[in-house]
Specification:
Two copies of one chain form a homodimer. Chain A contains three helices and ten strands. Chain A is of the alpha+beta class. Chain A folds into two domains: 36 residues; 132 residues, Nucleoside Triphosphate Pyrophosphohydrolase.
C-alpha cells in the first residue's frame, strides 16, 4: 500500500483573522479553499509546542506528577511536561521542567515521539522522551508549581492507563510507548 | 501510597472574561486564586468533547484515516474521530463518525478510555473506543469529508506509533490501548 495520499488533500489559506494573542495560546480564524474548490473556515489555537518526559528511576518507578488542571476542573495524574519558552530547544525545556517539577536531572534522554495533541484545532506538537539515570537536585524543585510528585512502578502506571485512572492523552501515549521500548 | 493529593491543589475562579465563541472552540480567560492565596490567570479553550474509535475489521486491520489537518499544516494518519454535536451522546457521535469517515457500522463497541487531549489549556475530553464486528454501509461515507480510508494491520499500526509515522496523540493512545486488550 502506498504511503502517499491518493489525492491532494491540502487546504489553502486565503485569509486570516487574528482574535487573540495570549501567554500560552493565540487564536486565529483561517478562511481556506478546499481541495474540491469549496470554501470553509478553520478555528486555530496557536501554541508554541511542548515537551513531556517519562522519567524512570533506578527502581523502575515513573516519577509522575499530580496537579490541578483548571480546564478539566480536576487534579490529574500526568507525566512531567511543559511549554517551550522563547528561544529554548525542546531538550532545554525538558531539562528545566524535570528540575522544576520533580527535582531531578536526567543524565540520559531518549526521544520517543512527536505528537499533535489536538490537530483538529491546535498547532501544539509535543515531544515525548524517556528520561533515565536520574539524579536528585535537592532543593531545586519549584515550590510555586503546586505539584505533587508520585512515584509509580512503570507496570502499575501502564495498568492505570488501562483501568481509566490516567486521564491525560500524552501520559497514556508516553507510558505505553516507554513500556514498549523497555 | 495514598491516591489522594496530600494538599489542596484546587484553583478557584474569581472572575471570567469571554474572548470568543466559535463553531468548534470558545476561549475565555479565568482569574484564579491559587491554593497558597496567590493569583494567576488561565487561558481556557472550551471544547464540547469528542470521540475516537479504533475500528478493527475481521482481518485484524484498523481502518485508519488520512486527512489534511490545517493547524498542523500536514496530512496526518489517525483513527476516526469527531466532535460531539449538540444533543448527541458519545455513542451516537461514534456511530455517525464511523459511517461518515470510513463507511462502516460497528455492531460491537467497547470503551477504552476518556482522555483530556491538552488539559493545560483545553477542556476537551475525548472518549476512545474499540469498534469491531464492522459492516460496510455502501455509499454512506460522506464524500465531503476529504478523508482517505487506510486499512492497516493492528500490529503494523502499533509499529508505526513506535517508529514516529503516527503523529497524533489520541491515535497513539488508542492503538496501544487497543493492542493491550486484544
Amino acid at each position: 500500500m502506498s504511503d502517499e495520499p491518493r489525492q491532494d488533500l491540502r487546504e489553502r489559506t486565503t485569509a486570516t483573522r487574528r482574535i487573540y494573542e495570549g501567554r500560552i495560546v493565540g487564536l486565529r480564524i483561517d478562511e481556506v479553499r478546499l481541495p474540491d474548490g469549496g470554501k470553509s473556515t478553520r478555528e486555530i489555537v496557536e501554541h508554541r509546542g511542548a515537551v513531556a518526559a517519562v522519567p524512570v528511576d533506578s527502581d523502575g518507578r515513573v516519577l509522575m506528577v499530580r496537579q490541578w488542571r483548571h480546564p478539566a476542573e480536576e487534579v490529574l495524574l500526568e507525566i512531567p511536561a511543559g511549554t517551550l519558552e522563547e528561544g529554548e530547544t525542546p531538550e532545554e525545556t525538558l531539562r528545566r521542567e524535570l528540575v522544576e517539577e520533580i527535582g531531578h536531572r536526567a543524565r540520559r534522554v531518549e526521544h520517543l515521539a512527536d505528537l499533535y495533541t489536538a490537530p483538529g484545532y491546535s498547532t501544539e506538537l509535543i515531544g515525548i522522551y524517556l528520561a533515565t539515570e536520574l539524579e536528585p537536585m535537592d532543593g531545586e524543585a519549584d515550590a510555586d508549581e503546586n505539584i505533587e510528585v508520585v512515584p509509580i512502578p512503570l507496570e502499575e502506571a501502564v495498568e492505570r492507563c488501562r483501568s481509566g485512572q490516567v486521564r491525560d492523552a500524552k501520559t497514556v501515549a508516553g507510558l505505553l510507548l516507554a513500556a514498549s521500548v523497555r
